């Protein structure tokens, strides 16, 4: 599909099935067959950019046919477009967008020298700033292919118009992982040990808070719970106490537990309370210093035998791979099937991927607020808009 017009396609593979590795082999083929070209890899977080850089180095060391440079445009890294003529450019969307504002010719020059653009977590591709960058990189240059990667090829679970927009952006061309004898590849990956067998349970909470009319309207129209509702949930002491008790129950059977808290303050509160109760608990949010964040995540990924629990809000749904994680508690209500699937996926690594045979997923179910079920149904949720 990348060799023929319109040269746009989305690669649809479940979390844990190796879509990054698959994409890196596509990139390697592109670089091997063209002796002087750029491939641009775009992602929305520094963790995803780091992951891509490491994965490319691993793949190219085995299949590469020449020395190529990896140009980094994320975090504190910078480079001049004139210096990039061959190899891989790994860029964060926000960093590239800011660079485009200050130097409009920069993005155009990258596009002119490129033959392939890869966008990770491609369900975000139609966000206005992301779409603008992608169009500048590809539209003026007919030789440039666009490859999207996603485990969840849709924007929402209930807004067909948004999902149609994403499908049209990739010319309704999608390649999905399919396995003979299985209704969806998630079942195959579990059976073969690449994904853990997930045990879903609910932590019901009879939330007595009332929704304001504008909050009800926002929930019905959007796919995120309003911040005002999240704050009231986080401030409910009885709800937090129920979450703490379930966390402690999980720590009796699991060495690594991740908690998706309701707000930034909620993540910090839960971690502090767990520490006071004698557990090794830390919190990571977008406000955490980058050096401290890296130290905390490295400690959580370590092979130390003492149980650890990691509370976070908004930063570990993608690009965070800690295979020893065998339990996740989701205390953040959401109408986004994409976000829900990403949170579940943090505990889904199977034994053949360095993870666990089974994992526990606990979802806090607040009265009157939406929730979701299993991973298999998520994989097939958007098929109708791509047909």
What can you see in these coordinates?
The structure is a single chain. With 387 residues, the protein is an alpha/beta fold. The chain has 15 helices and 13 strands. The chain has helices spanning 19-33, 46-63, 93-102, 104-113, 128-138, 160-169, 185-191, 213-221, 227-234, 237-251, 264-276, 290-301, 337-345, 375-379, 383-386, and strands at residues 8-12, 38-43, 69-73, 87-92, 114-119, 145-150, 174-176, 197-205, 256-260, 281-285, 308-313, 327-330, 358-366. The strands form two sheets. Strands 3-4-2-5-6-1-7 form a seven-stranded parallel β-sheet, with helices on both faces. Helix 1 crosses helix 2 (46-63), helix 3 (93-102) packs across helix 4 and helix 4 (104-113) crosses helix 5 (128-138). The longest helix has 18 residues, at 46-63. The radius of gyration is 21 Å and the shape is globular. The two termini are 16 Å apart. The model is unreliable at 374-386 (pLDDT under 50).
Instruction: Report the strand count.
Output: 13
Order of helices and strands: EHEHEEHHEHEHEHEHHHEHEHEEHEHH
Tally of individual helices: 15
Rg estimate, integer Å: 21 Å
Sequence of strands across the biggest β-sheet: 3-4-2-5-6-1-7
Q: Sketch the major β-sheet.
A: 7 strands, parallel
Shape: globular
Distance between the termini: 16 Å
Uncertain segments of ≥5 residues (pLDDT<50)?
Answer: 374-386
Average pLDDT value? 87
Helix content: 40-55%
Our estimate of the beta-strand percent is 15-25%
Which secondary-structure class do the elements indicate? alpha/beta
């Amino acid at each position: 599909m990348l060799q023929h017009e319109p040269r746009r396609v989305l690669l649809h593979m479940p979390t844990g099935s190796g879509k990054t590795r698959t994409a890196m082999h596509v990139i390697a083929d592109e670089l091997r067959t063209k002796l002087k070209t750029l491939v641009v890899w775009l992602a929305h977080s520094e963790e995803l950019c780091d992951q891509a850089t490491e994965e490319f180095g691993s793949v190219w060391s085995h299949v590469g046919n020449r020395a190529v440079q990896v140009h980094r445009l994320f975090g504190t890294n910078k480079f001049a477009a004139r210096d990039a003529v061959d190899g891989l450019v790994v860029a964060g969307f926000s960093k590239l967008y800011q660079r485009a504002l200050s130097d409009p010719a920069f993005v155009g020059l990258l596009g002119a020298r490129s033959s392939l653009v890869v966008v990770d977590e491609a369900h975000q591709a139609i966000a206005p700033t992301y779409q603008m960058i992608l169009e500048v990189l590809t539209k003026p240059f007919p030789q440039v292919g666009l490859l999207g990667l996603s485990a969840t090829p849709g924007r929402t679970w209930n807004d067909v118009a948004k999902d149609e927009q994403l499908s049209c952006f990739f010319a309704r061309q999608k390649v999905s992982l399919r396995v003979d004898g299985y209704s969806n590849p998630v079942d195959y990956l579990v059976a073969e040990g690449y994904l853990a067998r997930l045990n879903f349970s609910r932590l019901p909470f009879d939330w007595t808070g009332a929704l304001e009319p504008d909050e009800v309207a926002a929930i019905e129209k959007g796919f995120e719970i309003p911040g005002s509702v999240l704050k009231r949930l986080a401030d409910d002491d009885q709800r937090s106490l129920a979450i703490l008790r379930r966390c402690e129950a999980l720590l009796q059977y699991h060495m690594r537990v991740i908690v998706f808290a309701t707000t930034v303050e909620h993540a910090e509160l839960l971690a502090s309370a767990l520490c006071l109760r004698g557990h090794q608990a830390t919190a990571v949010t977008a406000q955490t210093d980058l050096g401290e964040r890296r130290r905390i995540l490295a400690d959580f990924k370590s092979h130390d035998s003492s149980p650890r629990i990691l509370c976070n809000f908004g930063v570990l749904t993608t690009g965070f791979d800690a295979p020893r994680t065998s339990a996740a508690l989701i205390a953040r209500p959401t109408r986004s099937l994409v976000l829900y699937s990403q949170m579940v996926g943090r505990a889904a690594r199977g034994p053949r991927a360095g993870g666990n045979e089974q994992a526990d997923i606990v979802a806090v179910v607040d009265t009157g607020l939406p929730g979701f079920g299993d991973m298999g149904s998520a994989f097939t949720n958007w098929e109708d808009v791509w047909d």
